[in-house]
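Supplementary material to the annual report.
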Amino acid sequence: MSTLQLSRAVYDTIRAHGESTYPHECCGALLGKQTDNGWQVAASIEAGNTRTDSAHNRYQISPLELMKIERAAREQGLGIAGFYHSHPDHPAQWSVTDFNEAHWLGCSYVITAVEKGKATLTNSFALVGATEESKRFEPEAIEVSG
Amino acid sequence: MKIFIPTPLRPFAGGQDTVEVTAATVADALAALTAAHADLRKHLFTPEGKLRAFVNLYLNDEDVRYLPEKEATPVTEKDTLTIIPSIAGGRA
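Predicted assembly:
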């Protein structure tokens, strides 16, 4: 099983983001460096949810914003380790929609359940596979330090 | 021109985050990229040769799908092409 390494500050920040957008889904990116067994996250960046039509159960980050995030990561010598979003009043488990819309092979997808406005469980899933057709989510451990 | 490679595709581009190509159009640039890095092809294109729906291309800061000539848009050596896979999802 791979491991996503986060500082306490980043962990708390992404969970707080989900609480701040409740009852809507929050979303954002994680920047970091690859380790032998996953990613070490250096920072998180909040992103706008463009699914204003259905923000209570959908999220989307605009490609233009993603491009700017990727550029910022590149300038810092980092890569995009993955993405995070919240599930308002719903388990921290990937959905069919999460899976169908996941295309960043090798990256981590972090989901926080936010129940009645309070963040509860945060889980991470590595998107593995050689191609879009063979991709799958595998649960990974989260290691919070500090 | 420079092509910026997104994090998940860098292993298929020799680990590079940027690839330099010589091309006359956006389509030529992609062809040059996949000629130099053949493993990228299946990640960018369907088996039928169409750009995958979740692959976004930006010519400088413009989404290529909204340019009048789309992938036939001419490019110069000073232009940049950024490849960005979509990110979306939701609880339902």
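Chain B has one domain: 2-85.
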